[in-house]
Structures are given as C-alpha cells and as structure tokens.
Amino acid sequence: MSAPLVAAVSVEFHESGFGAHPAAPIEHAIRRARADCGVLTSMHIGVPRETDPLERRTALVPAAASKLIRSGFTVSVESGAATGAGFTDADYTDVGATVCSERSALLGSADIVLRVGKPPVEEVSALRKSALHVSFLDPYNERGLVESLASHGVSAVSMEMVPRTTRAQKMDALSSQANLAGYVMVMLAARKLDAILPMMMTPSGTISPARVFVIGAGVAGLQAIATAKRLGARVEAFDVRNVVAEQVQSLGAKFVDIDLGETGQTKDGYAKALTDAQLEMQREGMKAVIAQSDIVITTAQVFGRPAPRVLTADMVAAMKPGGVIVDMAVGSGGNVDGSKPDEDVEVDGVTIIGVTNLPSEVARNASEMYSNNLVNLLTEYWNQEDSSLNLDRSDDILAGCLLTQNGIVVNESVRALYEEAS
Question: Which are the catalytic amino acids?
C-alpha cells in the first residue's frame, strides 16, 4: 500500500471512532481512502435508460457488457435501456448482466454509471458519493450540472473532453459518433432529393451525377464525402484548414480553394474561429459552388461555443429549387439561416434538414461504437488483479476528460472558464 494511501487510511480509521471490532471499519477506511486517492474498488456498473425522448442509443451494448464482466466488473442495466438500439433485456441476462426495473436502486448501487447523454440535475443526488459518472456532459454550457456533480462527491468524466491523441483514439467518442453522423447526413439528403446521386447511362439517355458540396472536412465531413462518393455523386468540399485538402482529394473529391488569409486549427484538431472579414470572404467564395449544387452539407462547429453561421439567407436563395441542405450544427445554433432543430424547413423550394441527434438515426451501430469507447476507457485504468480503477489526474487522457473529483472541479480549462465567468 502506498504511503499516501496508508496515511489516508490511518486518518480515516482514527476519525471514524471504531475500535472494538476493527476488521469492518478498517475495510471501510481502506475503501474510503482509496476513493479519496482516485482509486475505486469492487466495481459495479449501472446503465440507466436515457431520459432524452429523441435518444435511441444506449451506453453499453450486450457484447460490451460481456467484455467488462469478463474483466471483473459486474453490470446492471435498467429494463428497456437498449430497446431503441435493438437490444432486449434478455440479451443482457444472456451475457451475465442483471436487469433492474427500479431506476433509483440502479443509480444508488452503482460504483460507475455509464450514459450517453448528460444526467438530469435532479438525479445527481441519487448517485453514490465517490461514484464515477461517464457520459457526454457539455461542460462549457452546463456549469450547474458539473458543479452539482462535484459537490455531491461524484467523479465525472466528460466524453467530449477526451483528447485527440493517438493513445486516446480508441476512447474518442466524439469522433466515433461524428463518423456515423457524416454517413447519416448523406442518406437523409439522398432520401429527400428528387433525383438520384450516381450517373446513369440508359437507352433512354444519360443522367448526370448529383453534385454534393460538403462544408467542413473534419471527421463527419470526411465521412460525408466518402459516402456521397460511394453513392456516385460528384463531390466538392471546403474547409478553412487547407491542411485537410489532401485528405479530401484522397477520397476522390475536389477541394474548393478559397483564400481567407491566415487560418488554422487548434492543438486538438478543431478549426479556429474565423474573423468577420474571413467569414464574408468564405461566403462569397462558397456561394457560386452552392448555386450549382444539388446537396449541401454543413458540419462547421467550434467546440464549446455556438456554431458559426456559414450559409446566410442569400446563399440559400442561390440554390436551385429541389435542392437539399443538411445542417449538422442545428443543435448548437445552426450553420444555416432558417434551419430549425428537428424540423425540415422549405425555403423557395430548397429543403433544409435539421436533425439534432444524427447518430441516434443509426442507434445500433452508434451504441456499439460508443460502448467500445467506454470499454476502452475503463479497461485502460482497470487493475484486474486487485479489482481497482485508478483515476490518476496526472495521466494525460484523464487530465483532459476528468472534470470532477473529491468534491471539486479538477479540469483546468473548465475550472478556468467557470472562475472567469464568476
């Protein structure tokens, strides 16, 4: 046992007032001290049903639950938690998990709670103190929730904050879900478009391929490009980061080069925000391409901030009737003037699609990929020999995604943002 842990046990034991029968209090003291040092033991995982009515994903599919059980975890799943993703309660019991119909009991007994979406604030008090909670949390916009988790003594991991490094790639849920979102956007547009995507040569004549313009060549944009190309469309793409031009071209698309002056990306691979002057140059350069396009897909997002307005009303008006626009960022303010969350809006014959939860449209695969991200995260820090989970904040991945621990907000960037706003 490490020196800091021995000291913590000693303090906990002597302050507990136990003495007549030391075995149970010593075990309690060790467990409490290990939790205070970021080491969690005897891991029981609880997976509640998602509360968002539009969320069909689940945090843990049966195959992933089986992997964790074989690694020494125990798993309980709320009844019906995975129905939207195509899995039954029996699928979980078949792999050794238990199914719980009482939500409060599930949350109160879990050492680790796994979710997709952020928890309702009112459920934080139902969690065990010193429990680990893992989900998307939107920490830059959910200060009240994050501080509530901290004050309740919950260690909270935000999956949005997993760093984009080689080592963390297998845990990068933002990328895994964005990949699927890119695919879904093309399929939604193709279904709405009143024309086919590939070129077709028939005895009746030749049909030209549809023209698809993808704005933003991040993970979602690149998958949208690849999907549209596989369907036979003629694809063009634009991104403020010229460094991605080669990736776009490697997928068979044309990179639209618009001179915006100095741009770039953050250390985590996100596009930097443009100045007002750069945005105006970008819009003028894109307008001509949009006028010739059948489908336009926008994927521009700035992490933790409202989405930039990429397509103005006059740019939408330049598109020919029958065209389709898909706004990936509709849930964070929208890239497109006129888009509305979870609605199809028609403007002068152009349809603007705004789906806030694109991965949920392919819930089974999205759940499988997200589950793998969570399994990789947990097993990275799991010591199977002594059944402990070591949440050491000096670890480079945890330094990025662990938000709260021991009653305080520990993530440096999130804490600095909160202090600045105070």
Answer: 164, 169, 172, 175, 270
